């Protein structure tokens, strides 16, 4: 039992900058308000937004800063930055896919919403650091529940309009 608990702690420690990067854009977007701007510059493809108004430069930069700060505190600054950058690009890629298939902003796409950011984060950080195979598996298993839980908390705090 102690080994499983240590595995979970190690896995969460490894991916922590990505989690913080993925969770913090909503705060940056709220703080910047009308001074924020969509990352896609309101570009449309076949009448559909490239990413949509939910992906903003303020949120992106907030996510990079917060996730990188976590990496710095872990004494893993480069890994923290790469995990953060990967998480945010993965999240934007998920929005791109959702817009292409006609899902509106805020609509759920199970697994893409919960794991897309982690897959990109792990891809980006793989150039400098890799989790062990058991840590990788733990990250993939734990992330959907953690993602839903943090989104529900953000909803209760009125930071998000949807609980998922």
Segments where pLDDT lies below 50 for 5+ residues? none
Q: What integer is the average pLDDT?
A: 93
> How many domains is the backbone divided into?
1
- Measured distance between first and last alpha carbons: 31 Å
Biggest sheet details: 2 strands, antiparallel
Q: What strand order characterises the main sheet?
A: 1-2
What would you call the structural class? mainly alpha
**DSSP helix fraction:** 55-70%
Supply Rg: 16 Å
- Looking at the structure, what is the overall shape? globular
For the secondary structure, the number of strands is 2
Q: What is the number of helices? A: 6
As a percent range, the share of strand residues is under 5%
Secondary-structure element series: HHEEHHHH
Set down the secondary structure blueprint.
Blueprint: H1 2-23, H2 25-32, E1 44-45, E2 48-49, H3 57-73, H4 77-100, H5 112-125, H6 133-156
Antiparallel strand pairs: 1-2
Helix pairs in contact: 1-3, 1-4, 1-5, 1-6, 2-3, 3-4, 4-5
């Amino acid at each position: 039992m102690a080994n499983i608990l240590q595995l979970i702690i190690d896995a969460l420690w490894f991916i922590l900058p990505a989690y913080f990067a993925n969770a913090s854009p909503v705060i940056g977007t709220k703080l910047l308000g009308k001074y924020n701007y969509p990352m896609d510059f309101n570009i449309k493809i076949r009448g559909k937004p490239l990413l949509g108004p939910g992906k903003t430069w303020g949120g992106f930069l907030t996510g990079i800063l917060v996730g990188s700060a976590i990496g710095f505190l872990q004494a893993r600054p480069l890994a923290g930055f790469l995990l953060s950058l990967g998480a945010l690009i993965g999240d934007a890629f998920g929005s791109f896919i959702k817009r292409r298939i006609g899902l509106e902003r805020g609509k759920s796409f199970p697994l893409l919403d919960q794991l897309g950011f982690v897959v990109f984060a792990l891809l980006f950080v793989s150039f400098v650091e890799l989790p062990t195979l058991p840590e990788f598996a733990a990250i993939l298993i734990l992330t959907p529940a953690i993602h839903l839980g943090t989104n529900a908390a953000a909803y209760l705090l009125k930071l998000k309009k949807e609980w998922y």
